[in-house]
Known about the structure:
By secondary structure, the protein is mainly alpha-helical. It contains nine helices and no strands. The chain starts with a helix and ends with a helix. The mean pLDDT is 94.
Amino acid sequence: MMFRKRSLLLFVGVMLLLIFASYFFIDRSVAEYFLANIATYETIGDTISIAGESHWYIATGIFGFIFFKYYKKNTLHEQRFLFLLYINLFSGVINLLLKWLFARIRPWGLRDGHDEYGFLLFQNFDMGFLEKMRYHFMTLAESPTTYSSFPSGHTTTIVAVTVYLLLFFPRYKLLWFSLAIILALSRVLANDHFISDIFAGIIVGTLSTLFLYSKMKDKLEKNS
């Protein structure tokens, strides 16, 4: 794997600290700035964000796997494209479950002078547990897109792909890091995510990819 356990624990610890610091001291002010300048930044953010949509990488994984398994047979390439498919599906499922659990309202809650901010998970503690859970999932059912800010799905995808590229093409690491930063921050420009959502996406994308790599390492490095 790319990191030892101690390094991974340090990485997760630092990212969690950044999430907390960002939530309490940075998220709101940054979101309000980009909402106030929506005409300048939103289109740019939306356009760049297209490259962070998981279907591009899922499709690439499927077609690459089929090509190298049935047409131009190459076991190593076949497994690497399969790995690309797996990391996008696996990280995507984890991301979706976390979105449902935390149910954080997107920066849209701060539009037009509104003050809706935070996580449904940490609200309504005056309700009973069952009542709170019912309200939580009813709210999600009524507004699934609005309450799906944390973690950033696009960031999870692009970080998973970035770690994939770092594993197999480490000599271009500056390029991969640069593209990942640009794509992740585009979600803030697009007013779809807070900074802390980006940090959370980095954790999910990184750990998901490294976990699957540890399970498939022998096949992915065979003959390499």
